[in-house]
Amino acid sequence: MVVKKHCHHPGNKKNKTQKREKKYWRMWGGWNEPVGGGCEVKICGFGKMGETPHMPGKNAAADFVDKILAADLERLSLKEREKVYEDVHGVSDAIQETPELIASCMEQMDHQIGLIQDKDAYEQAKLQSFDCVTNGKLRLAFLRSTSFNPESAALQLVQYFRKKLDIFGPEKLTRSSITLEDIGVAATRMSELGRLQILPNRDSNGRAVVVSRASFMDPALADCDDLSMVRWTAPQTVSGCDRCVTIKAFWYIMSALSEDEETQKKGFIFVWNRIGISGRHEYFRRALALGILEIFQVLPIRMACLHYCYNSSSPVLAVLASAAKSIIRVRVRTHRGSHTECLYELGSFGIPVQEFPFAEDGCIQLANQIQWLERRRKKETYLSKHPQIIGAVDLPSKHDVLLGRGKHRHPGNRLLHELVESYYDQYNHLPREGRSNLAHQLVAVVHGYSGRFLKFDNESGMWVEVSSVEAREKVTHRFRHSRALDMKGGFAHSTESIASWTNNGTDGGGKRSRKSCSGS
Q1: What is d(CA 136, CA 106) in angstroms, rounded to the nearest whole number?
Q2: Which is higher by pLDDT, 230 or 261?
Q3: How far, CA to CA in Å, does 384 sit from each of 132, 185, 188?
């Protein structure tokens, strides 16, 4: 007797849905995904079965990430957990880079490179330019990104050249800095869209902040109203050319950030804003997501924390958790809610949310991105003629004093304003020569808490440290401006010693009265 299978039976439909969801997670790396150390996280029965025909349950991605992070944190020691917590909140102590430490780590790193077997790209780069591969500045950047772990730095350096060869080819393998000309017109236009931007100011702990609105929507379907056309796609159906353009643009912006010495030491904050981007309506491209994630793991720059903001289910969380290294996964913080709610949570981490270029309606403000790209063009043109620039800065720190109009809102300029305010009475009772000496002492105070006096150079597109004479003139100008405000009745002053500024200036410590901050 032949039993006919009833395809429309409710039980058969449920089984088909379960198989489809299992197939989905196997495809994107979220089913029985090993997380290192012999531990395996098995995700099954998550969400409501059959909720959506093309994706798992509504909270499946978030649940998957939580289980992965919990497994990672359990394997960390108490000291390692404290280190992660300090990195996320920006309270970790910087490593004292003594000449002995650098020399010792450089020697160990060179030894570890020799032990690596698969390093064809590294050897090819070494044949093309021995000086580029053995450059002390480059190797120091990799040591900083791995907290001076020679073994990890050696492996990351080899992987860096492998990825660079894969993206840019052998002709650009030994370029010390990838330029806009190197990435091409298409990738440059991709950068101009502003989906990945470096904020003009650092966070409250002095770390650079990178914000992204990147999605994995197929450009051909970006304006499509018929959502039935949008479906999950296998990696092999993705256009390799389109993926390469996006990855080149991403590499360019992140490698430019890695050139900053302070960012190498302190790391950076990455905010991935996907609010309003629904995973259900997204033409997801796993190969592109993994390619971008790999850039984070090979460039000589350390991610202190990754903030993931979203308000709907998305497969990117699962891919991020399953494909990222454990050192990145434990630094992921998820924020689910509206645009305002996520900004409020980000602000609690000291991130300057008032400078976010992404509006609640999804619009992207491009003013900062256009200015940044213009500065990069000037810098690249200038460096082609003058390879060495001493004292040049791409992204000023929160302690730096910026010269020029309209810079009074910069944190370093505010610190100088309060410093001048505390010595206002003393300055007014000094003769002319005494005023000059006081201004010179205040310049030394700014230098004492790692501040610099910077002036923007239009030719090079970078901030350049000025001479002590110009710095003293800036302080004197600040006193004159304060006197003008005092005559109008708009300046409040107090007294405070230079010693207190030297001790508390690093963290902006101490209570200082400040009523006005107008002017430069």
Answers
A1: 8
A2: 261
A3: 17, 19, 19
329's enclosing H/E stretch is helix 326-329
The closest of 257, 170, 250 to 213, measured between CA atoms, is 250
- Encoded tokens for 485: 């405000």
DSSP for 135-196, please give it. Answer: -HHHHHHHHHHTTS-HHHHHHHHHHHHHHHHHHH-GGGTT-SS--HHHHHHHHHHHHHT-SE
- Residues whose CB falls within 8 Å of the CB of residue 503, separated by 6 or more in sequence, listed in order: 509
Please, are residues 477 and 456 in contact by the beta-carbon 8 Å criterion? no
From residue 336, alpha-carbon distances to 37, 149, 211, 317, 346 in Å are 30, 35, 16, 12, 11
pLDDT tens digits for range 339-394: 999 999 999 999 999 999 998 887 889 999 999 999 999 888 888 877 666 667 88
Pure H helices in 35-149:
60-74, 78-89, 99-115, 120-128, 130-133, 136-145
Cβ-based neighbour number of residue 409 at 10 Å: 12
Q: How far apart are CA 406 and CA 247, in angstroms?
A: 35
Query: In angstroms, rounded to a whole number, what is the distance separating the alpha carbons of residues 459 and 434?
Result: 37
Cα angle value 487/488/493 (rounded, 5°): 65
Question: What is the number of alpha carbons within 13 Å of residue 132 lying toward its C-beta?
Answer: 16
CA dist 236 → 240, 243, 287 (Å)? 9, 12, 8
Beta carbons of 450 and 399 less than 8 angstroms apart: yes
Residue 124 pLDDT grade (very low, low, confident, very high; cuts 50, 70, 90):
very high
CA dist 270 and 273 (Å) reads: 10
pLDDT at 65 over 60: yes
**pLDDT at res. 489:** 64
Does an H or E element contain 208, and which? Answer: strand 208-212
d(CA 66, CA 30): 13
Distance CA 182, CA 197 (A): 19
Record the tokens describing residue 326, joined without a space: 């454990």
Per-residue tokens: 393: 């800065």
Question: Among candidates 340, 259, 351, 269, which has minimal Cα distance to 303?
Answer: 269
Average pLDDT value for the chain: 75
Residue whose structure tokens are 């205040």 = 442
Instruction: Measure the CA–CA gap between 81 and 92, rounded to whole angstroms.
Output: 12
What's the token pair of residue 175?
A: 């370029």
Assess contact for 302 and 261: CB atoms under 8 A: no
Neighbours of 103 (CB within 10 A): 11
**Helices 432-448 & 468-487 angle (0-180, nearest 10):** 110
